[in-house]
Amino acid sequence: MNSAVRLTVILSGLSILSGCGAEQFQPPNFGTGGASGAAVDSGTAIDLAAGGAGGSGTGGDLAPPDDGGGADDVAPDLTVGTGGAGGTPIDANGAGGDAGVDAVDPCATAANPTLDTDGDGLPDCAEDGDGDPWTDRTVFNGFSVTVKANGSSGTCADLADYNAMSGRFAAPTETKSMYAGWSFDTDQDRYYDPSYGFKPNWSTTVGGSFRVRYRGVIDLKVAGQHCFKVDVGSTGAAAPDSCGQVYLNASPGRTWLVENGVQATAGAGQACVNLPAGQYPLEIVFQYGSATDRHKLSVLYCAGGANSCTPTAPLTQAMVRPLGCVSSADCDCQFYGGHAYRFCKVGHAFTDAEASCVAQNMRLIRIDNDAENAWAYATKQAETMPTTWIGATDAVTEGDWRWIDNTPFWSGLGATAGGKPVGGLYNNWDTGAAEPNQTGDEDCGGFWYAVPTWADLTCTDANAYICEAY
Asked: Using alpha carbons only, what angle is made at residue 251 by residues 231 and 372, rounded to the nearest 5 degrees?
């Protein structure tokens, strides 16, 4: 009878079930694995460019079964080869004390030359490397720009007074932060046409005549004469006029610094003002003329020190920031009484809301009179914002209510419980609800949902909020 061999190899135990005969199985020699690599010290920086060392194993001889008959022997020995060498060991010689991988500087690689965190058209690496704190990768450089469509009736002289000019931009068509669009020369009559160079461009597309207002703060690096030139290139003579005006450090009751346009004051296309170094409000107004005019705006600047100078350099976004406010998908900029406000709809806890304001060089709103309170409330309602944080808190000392700038304005609970204003400063607590009433742990102030009065609220609540530049 021929020998019948039946082998079943169970991996966990390498057991052998044999048929007739005295077959025996010799277990294979698998060889020894290589030594483990050295442990990585988590307190050192890891050089990710190098690979870790792998172990190597010696070969093993897999012996065939032998039934003693010879014919059934497996002729070749199955030899397992030697394992390959591993990669270069991890370099754990980073700076001492680092916990894990060292931070990567995005400006250290050529892969990020155009990274623009704040969306102002200035690459982060350029802002970091210019040595100027006025340009920052996290702070938008440019203007807050307002367009008023179908709003260019009148003459340039009608815009000479700051109050009159501001009134011409009531109920604007659109306002947004831009880093370009105040240097153009085009024959197109629509403000949203790409030839005007507004960046980012308008989302509205209203036809007809228009006027544009640019609002910001300029950083004057040196003291002395600061000179501006504005040119609208207008060739027509019929009203409504084409006008260009520059207001520097202007306020209600003051007039423009520079004006140029059809029927504009003669010789007013260039002017200088002597100012110390610092940051000053800067505004530009452009008014569309007749359809036969060439639509142009050019604003040039120079600093002359003790003497006046002739402006030849274009005004760039690196020189200006919006007037205390940058609009975003969640927050809209509004202006009142010479201050910028940011109305933010997405809810945050009080401290997070304040941090969001600070990131924009603002604070949670401080309300100083009935007119400001009425305007802020009406604006928040128009923005469809529910309960909304203002910058009032007694989180440090219970009953010592202060504005976020640390100015005390109220002491104690509500007026019916003996509370009273501090220093005659304004308040608008909800007296019907005896606010502030400290129902629970309520240390932060805000507008009620649907009334223009204030209440103390739990600081960890996620509410809308209003920022103010002051």
From this structure: 130
pTM of the predicted protein model: 0.53
* Omega of the bond leading into 240 within 30 degrees of 0 (cis): yes
Identify which of 341, 383, 334, 380 has the alpha carbon closest to the alpha carbon of residue 360: 341
Q: Which of the listed ranges 83-92, 124-133, 221-230 does the model predict with the highest average pLDDT?
A: 221-230
Contact 156, 255 (CB under 8 A): no
Query: Cα separation of 134 and 240, whole Å?
Result: 38
pLDDT in tens, 203-237: 999 988 889 999 888 989 999 999 999 988 765 55
Taking the CA of residue 290 as centre, how many other CA atoms within 13 Å lie in the half-sphere pointing to its CB?
9
- Residue 444: pLDDT over 60: yes
What's at 222, amino acid-wise?
V
Average pLDDT, the chain: 76
The answer to whether 229 and 299 have CB atoms below 8 angstroms apart is: yes
Helices (H) and strands (E) in the chain, counts: 4, 24
Looking at per-residue confidence, does 275 or 99 come out higher?
275
Do residues 59 and 80 make contact, with C-beta atoms less than 8 angstroms apart? Answer: yes
The model's pLDDT over 271-293, given as tens digits with 9 standing for 90+, comes to 999 999 887 889 999 988 776 67
Handedness of CA 196, 201, 205, 208 (dihedral sign): negative
* Structure token pair of residue 76: 């070749």
* Burial (CB count within 10 angstroms: exposed 0-12, middle 13-18, buried 19+), residue 158: middle
Contacts (Cβ under 8 Å, ≥6 apart) of 99: 42, 43
Instruction: List, in order, residues 6 or more apart from 416 with CB less than 8 Å away.
Output: 431, 434
Q: Where are the beta strands (DSSP E) in 51-179?
A: 61-62, 78-79, 143-149, 174-178
Q: Which residue has the higher pLDDT, 332 or 96?
A: 332
Q: What is the DSSP letter of 306?
A: T
Pick from 296, 317, 136: nearest CA to 229: 296
Close Cβ partners of 414 (under 8 Å, ≥ 6 residues apart):
429, 431, 433, 434, 435, 436, 437
Task: Convert 439-453 to b/e letters by CB count within 10 Å (16 or more is b).
Answer: eeebbbbbbbeeebb
**Higher pLDDT residue, 122 or 45?**
122
What is the number of other CB atoms lying within 10 angstroms of the CB of residue 389? 31
Q: What are the DSSP calls for 184-201, one per residue?
A: EEE----TTSGGG--BSP
The count of other CB atoms within 10 Å of the CB of residue 293 is 22
Q: How far apart are CA 334 and CA 379, in angstroms?
A: 9
